[in-house]
Amino acid sequence: MNNPRTDIPTPRPERRMRAKKRDLMSLCPEMRGEQCPARRRDGKGEGPLSRHRQILRIALPSIVSNITVPLLGLIDVAITGHLGSETYIGAIAVGGMLFNIIYWMFAFLRMGTSGMTSQALGRRDLHETMRLLIRSVGIALFISVILIAVQYPVREVALSIISPSPDVASLARTYFNICIYGAPASLCLFALNGWFIGMQNSRIPMVMAIAQNICNIILSLILVLVMGMKVEGVALGTVIAQYLGLATALVALYKVYITRLRRYMPHGFVRCLLPASSDIWNKADIMRFLNVNRDIFFRTCCLVAVHFAFIAAGAKQGDTELAVNTMLMQLFTLYSYIMDGFAAAGEAIAGKAIGNRNSIIYHDVVRRLFLWGIIMVALFTLLYSLFAYPFFTLLTDDAHVIRTAGEYHLWTLLIPICGMAAFIWDGIYIGATATRQMLISMTVGVIVFFILYHTLIPHLGNHGLWIAFITYLATRGIVQTLLRNKIVKWE
Hints:
Layout: H1 4-7, H2 12-27, H3 51-80, H4 86-105, H5 108-122, H6 126-149, H7 151-162, H8 166-179, H9 183-198, H10 203-226, H11 231-261, H12 269-272, H13 283-316, H14 319-355, H15 359-395, H16 399-406, H17 409-431, H18 435-460, H19 462-482
Helix pairs in contact: 3-4, 3-10, 3-14, 4-8, 5-6, 5-9, 5-13, 5-14, 6-9, 8-11, 9-11, 10-11, 13-14, 13-18, 14-15, 14-16, 14-17, 15-17, 17-19, 18-19
């Protein structure tokens, strides 16, 4: 006799829900204990991973990825430094700065993608996570094609602004003409990195960054020292490594995600990139994507403006002040690499909580991120108070520069204190896709910076410049704190 309980087939919607739950559990183990927000609002169901472990699981790989970046630039300078002329170092410095600025301007491909993806994951909308992946990669490819098409005017305008010597300019053009063809790989990596972080996975970007930089170093050494190439060897090594990094990311994407989420991408990855795929490229979703990224783009423009104004002011005050500011900014850069890791955790975890409409988890994440921020402030303030002078002697043996840097030691101690809130809130705001409020805080900070810049420098010199910069950092954090209740509407 047939068993009526087993003969009744499982309804198709129920099977789909079970399959979707299995996919979510396999991709995000910490979601095992999470329940629907309508049934669970106390934030205690995050599963076996504690909140601090969730934060560190994303922050630490991001920090490692960040730290690999300056190593590559150092190796490139070391390689060109043995070619027999300082013009090679100048060409790499100028060419590298050009691409840093160009790619920095399109960093919204990473930040905008991570925030929207984490929210979609929090809503358990795996179809939307796949649409965001394809949409961001498609836009990255479109932008890279435009960059390649307009490379000549971009290159010449940039070189006319920087105004290097004729020899350096000639070599920088060679470097630029090769590296520009790495734009598709670099911009696609921005999009993929943002998507991985939004999916609560910063390990893949870490492995990819390490592999890419190791390949870049090896290739540059072979092309320059073994094959006898010069600046073009360094540039070619960079481009090849960028595509190897993209290949690594795509392999990881396929093995970890596509094999599990294929059912949520019915038309296939390549076909979905075509404009005819209306499910991906509908107007409403594209406009939301562009609105979020537009605000991040203008915010980045503000960052670049402050960066260049700071360098220009130091250069006008003389070589000693320029050297001192360069060394002090290394301390800021080191701190920013660490804090950007915790910002990435904010993007991922806070964004997922917002998508899940769980205010308890969101506020818990914010509190714990600021706890880690306070710990980093105490740690870096202690390090900079004890080891700033040994760090200066590591960078230079010029006694006058070291002595002058000591006069600005106070500002290095204020960097962690005044900058912490801005870094933490940036990650949370990106996770919330509250890019308009983030742009407002940046705009206020920039206005304050330039008011103090023009007011204090004529009277206080380089100290006035550092007061303007430290106040700019603090202002961003203060404004973001004041706007914190406006970034998410829970009802």
